[in-house]
TrEMBL record:
SMART domains given in the database record: Lactamase_B (SM00849)
Annotated transmembrane regions: 28-44, 51-72, 245-268, 280-298, 334-363, 375-397, 409-428, 466-483
Species, as recorded: Deefgea tanakiae
Major localization listed first in the record, in broad terms: membrane
Subcellular location: Cell membrane
Designated name of the protein: DNA internalization-related competence protein ComEC/Rec2
Signal sequence, renumbered to the chain: none
SUPFAM superfamilies: Metallo-hydrolase/oxidoreductase
Annotated keywords: Cell membrane, Membrane, Transmembrane, Transmembrane helix
Membrane association type: Multi-pass membrane protein
Boundaries of every Metallo-beta-lactamase domain copy: 521-709
């Protein structure tokens, strides 16, 4: 019975995962026909291996049901996306702020729930609104009438890094709006009572800890709002592997539920009148679930807290039955409940980390032989949690924090058992003393984290393994967590070896690979030869953690030979401080910086070797020639754009030109200096009408013209006249806003790959090329 139960749940989840990997939402006939086939198989009798057929029937039926359920939910959610007819329009929208407003570098940002249809019957559940400072501050639950310019959901798509469109799907946000004008309705929405309570608690903590360095952490631990944590602190938490603690995590909710249940059980048993009317164990179960629910409501019932509450509900129901039940069955039941409630949860790395770690802890505990001392139990638990999370972290991020076991060994008990309870009690205690104690205790934890980061070899960085290696690695961990002395336990290490010895893709001699990364309205180009790597520009500041570092790790690059910073514009060099370690994190190893920056630019305050771009500079890597074509030393540049570094890369057959943001005058100078025809050109200044002159295009005669532009950018790049000129010259037009990152492999032939084609997903289809202009040729 247990085997059939576990098989059904595993296959149902597999069906949900299969749907979330689809490039487009398929027709209903697939799932319906599969379920029908499964039901027909169930009718077969007198078959020699009927038991095998029975299990096959269960598996096929469960996969079909999971696939169909996820498809139905996906269709409902995608149907809320903004209609094409409303894209780019400015409309009046009336609604209320349904989440805690956040501050961004561009101004306030919040989630708005419309209270009535906006236009043509369209009424989404949630819209993300970007306002600016002139609109003042916003309050949770506040009712507003706004004039919004509406845009569809769109995010950068690269070989690695954060998938913003997937995140919007998980959060059920249907559109993005830019506030043009705001009318406050001087009242609060009644249904927003919970978010108003959360906002009041946040304000209470901010007043009690006005200048405390870890004020943001205390807010995150009490109400789940992580927006006030500085970037430098987040980087430390990530590098030491304790980010799971800096929120209302499953561990905190579970501990609070256990404490509440234990307290009620202790009191209930000592009051005969209560114990005679209702069993103390059941009263404790109710108290634990209620405590978890209240704490989760404080966190705004975010997706991770929803998972934890559902897991606790399943466990409580099983205990309520007062019948023996396998821990694996409880774990599987919780997994099923979460996936049914939220089939989009499987898109989250946190979902897999939490369930896999808990699952392996259950596995390790059930296989334990004999009694262990407390310290042995604690060490064993840390070992199991560490090794259980390792494969997922390596496959997803390409690195694993080696100091994580040490950091977590101290941080888990201190944060979960001291800091969090003090912070929760401090919200109710009027003097603010407990909040101050909680903040100072966490300061001690962060001191330990900083000490951990001073140790050598704080993390393991490898070539990012393929997702296909994960099942074998997970089986290997299951073997390693068996008791000592079990035969063939050592095979677990063998199964883990492929994770650490993933071969790096070898680029042949005389070949170079250039990836024009999707960095929005900006530029960043990663160029690799057989043994070298170069990054030309970095895009704006948000691309550092979300794009550049993940892409570099995914490409197996652990050091850059050159970082070229073309000119002093934020959309070209904004993320450079992340690479140089000027934002509080570790610096990425860089051998040399080439630039055209002014002498007092803060980026130059680094020990990395520096060289100013000048025409005539050349070098050769692995049979590939690199030539700097601009800036001429005697040229009097009009502005920063005119001072851009211009790089030409060529092998014996083909060439690539990266002209950054030069304009027509500089283009004319390059042509006069003998600019050669080029197969691939990154359109100067993102396709602005002030660049890509007829003279330049006729001289280059490019086979490919690439526009590195932001989706529906307010500059309206690329300009239609520029697009027409390249098209008239016979160039194939490629755009990062439509195609994601664009990868060129340049050898005897030129191979082109587009990231949105390499790894398509159904939620990308809501943003079609028609929204951004002409369909690429």
């Amino acid at each position: 019975m247990l085997s059939r139960y576990l098989l059904f749940i595993a296959c149902f989840v597999l069906g949900v995962i299969a749907l979330q990997q689809q490039a487009s939402l398929p027709a209903w006939w697939w799932a319906v026909s599969s379920a029908g086939a499964a039901l027909l198989l169930a009718q077969i009798r007198y078959f020699k291996f009927q038991w095998l057929l029975h299990y096959f029937f269960i598996a096929l039926l469960a996969i079909s049901l999971g696939f169909a359920w996820a498809q139905w939910r996906a269709e409902l959610r995608m149907a809320q996306r903004i209609p094409m007819s409303l894209v780019g329009q400015t409309l009046w929208v009336e609604g209320y702020i349904s989440d805690l407003p956040q501050d961004s570098r561009f101004g306030p940002r919040f989630v708005l729930t419309p209270e009535q249809p906006i236009a043509n019957g369209w009424q989404p559940q949630r819209i993300q609104v970007n306002a600016n400072l002139k609109h003042g501050q916003f309050s949770a639950g506040e009712r507003l009438r706004l004039q919004l310019k509406l845009k569809p959901i769109h995010g950068a798509v690269n070989p690695a890094g954060f998938d913003l469109e997937s995140w919007f799907l998980q959060q059920n946000i249907a559109a993005v709006g830019s506030a043009k004008s705001v009318e406050r309705l001087n009242e609060f929405a009644n249904v927003a009572w919970l978010v108003r309570i959360r906002a009041a608690l946040r304000q209470r903590i901010v007043r009690a800890l006005p200048d405390a360095p870890y004020q943001g952490v205390i807010v995150a631990l009490t109400i789940g709002d992580q927006g006030g944590i500085p970037k430098a602190q987040w980087q430390r938490f990530a590098q030491t592997g304790i980010t799971h603690l800096i929120s209302i995590s499953g561990l905190h909710i579970t501990l609070l539920a256990a404490f509440s249940a234990s307290a009620v059980l202790f009191v209930w048993r000592r009051i005969p009148q209560l114990a005679q009317r209702f069993a103390a164990q059941r009263a404790a179960l109710i108290a634990g679930v209620l405590a978890a629910l209240v704490y989760s409501l404080l966190a705004g019932m975010a997706v991770p807290t929803q998972r934890t509450v559902l897991m606790l509900l399943v466990a409580a129901l099983c205990l309520w039955r007062a019948k023996p039940m396998a821990k694996s069955a409880i774990w599987a039941g919780a997994l099923m409940a979460v996936v049914v409630f939220d089939p989009f949860a499987v898109l989250s790395v946190g979902f897999w980390l939490s369930f896999m770690v808990v699952g392996y802890l259950i596995w390790a505990g059930s296989n334990r032989i004999g009694d262990l001392k407390q310290w042995q139990l604690w060490v064993g638990t840390q070992w199991a949690a560490t090794i259980a999370s390792m494969p997922i972290l390596l496959v997803v991020f390409g690195q694993f924090p080696l100091v994580s076991p040490l950091a977590n060994a101290v941080a888990i008990p201190v944060v979960s058992m001291l800091v969090t309870p003090l912070a929760l009690l401090g919200v109710l205690e009027p003097s603010g003393t407990l909040l101050h104690w909680a903040e100072r205790l966490f300061a001690g934890v962060d001191w330990l984290l900083q000490w951990c980061l001073s140790l050598p070899m704080i993390d393991l960085q490898i070539n990012t393994p393929s997702m296909s290696m994960l099942p074998l690695a997970m089986l290997g961990i299951a073997l390693l967590l068996l008791p000592r002395g079990v035969p063939a336990r050592w095979l677990g290490w063998v199964m883990l070896l492929p994770l650490f010895f993933t071969p790096k893709i070898v680029i042949p001699e005389n070949v170079f690979v250039a990836q024009v990364l999707d960095v929005g309205q900006g530029l960043s180009v990663l160029v690799q030869t057989r043994n070298h790597a170069l990054l030309f520009d970095t895009g704006h500041v948000a691309n550092g953690e979300r794009v550049l570092l993940p892409v570099l790790r995914q490409a197996g690059i652990h050091a850059l030979d050159k970082l070229i910073l073309s000119h002093n514009d934020a959309d070209h060099i904004g993320a450079a401080p992340i690479l140089l370690g000027q934002e509080g994190g570790r610096a990425f190893p860089i051998q040399q910086i080439m630039h055209s920056l002014p002498p007092l630019q803060p980026l130059l305050a680094t020990t990395v070797t520096q060289r100013v771009c000048q025409a005539g500079q050349t070098w050769q890597w692995d049979g590939v020639q690199f030539s700097m074509l601009w800036l001429q030393p005697e040229y009097s540049a009009r502005d920063d754009n005119a001072k851009s570094c211009v790089l030409r890369i060529h092998n014996a057959q083909h060439s690539l030109l990266i002209p950054a943001d030069i304009g027509r005058l500089e283009e004319g100078e390059l042509v006069a200096a003998g600019l050669l025809p080029t197969d691939i050109v990154i359109a100067p200044h993102h396709g602005s009408k002030t660049a890509s002159s007829e003279l330049l295009i006729q001289t280059l005669q490019p086979q490919y013209a690439v526009f590195s532009v932001g989706f529906m950018n307010h500059f309206r790049h690329p300009h239609p006249d520029v697009v027409s000129r390249y098209a008239a010259a016979g160039s194939s037009l490629l755009r990062t806003d439509q195609m994601g990152a664009i990868r060129f492999t340049v050898g005897e032939q030129i191979e082109v790959k587009q990231q949105r084609v390499i790894a398509p997903r159904y939620w990308y289809n809501a943003t079609t090329p028609a929204l951004t202009g002409e369909t690429p040729q």
